[in-house]
Amino acid sequence: MDISLLLSIPGFLIYAQWQMRWVSESESGLRIPSLPSISYTLTLSSLSSFGPGLKIAHRASLVHPNYPSQCPDQGMVEEVLKSKTESGRAGGEGLSLEDLARLRVSRERVSESDLESERCRLDRVHEQVALGESALTWLLFAQKASILESSSSLSSSSSPSSIPLSYFTQWFGEERIPDGWTRPANTIGLLDARKIAGVVQQEIDRQR
């Protein structure tokens, strides 16, 4: 069995909307009293629904609001760009790891200011999903060499890499491959993502 098919099975089990009905003899064309017919659908609405356990939607998304949303919130995309322009922090014209951590902290504060703050607070599973979002964004789009080497520090002197704002806008805001982007030269593995997520977590803890 193809490994990608095997890995997709949990997603179907978690998100698919399953339906079963009994097909009559007249519908099936067979001389059998009835047959079970099982079908499923997988939609963007399913993927964006909040819930406990392994559902991936969470209330610390960089560009999605704290309710089920199938499309990025353009106002939130603009807020990210505006906050970078006004902050004048390390990372030049792009987003640094420090910026990604700052955005996460900001989103969590918005969620916790909700009247239902207990419901909006991230659990352990969704906290890791949110960290993974930041880590994979960095690994896919950070420009300049030695991305993993630069993850050991967040200062501008030793971490020159950054995510171009145009990449962020086109990927998150327009949901398309950014102009001029090329795939990473090396395969991005779980250990790579875990390493970057750990760096982002350290910076989040520092900023809280």
TrEMBL record:
It holds the Pfam family Peroxidase_2. One of its GO terms (molecular function) is peroxidase activity. It comes from the Eukaryota. Gene3D superfamilies: Chloroperoxidase-like. Residues 1-195 form the Heme haloperoxidase family profile domain. This is Heme haloperoxidase family profile domain-containing protein. It comes from Lentinula lateritia. The lineage of its organism: Eukaryota, Fungi, Dikarya, Basidiomycota, Agaricomycotina.
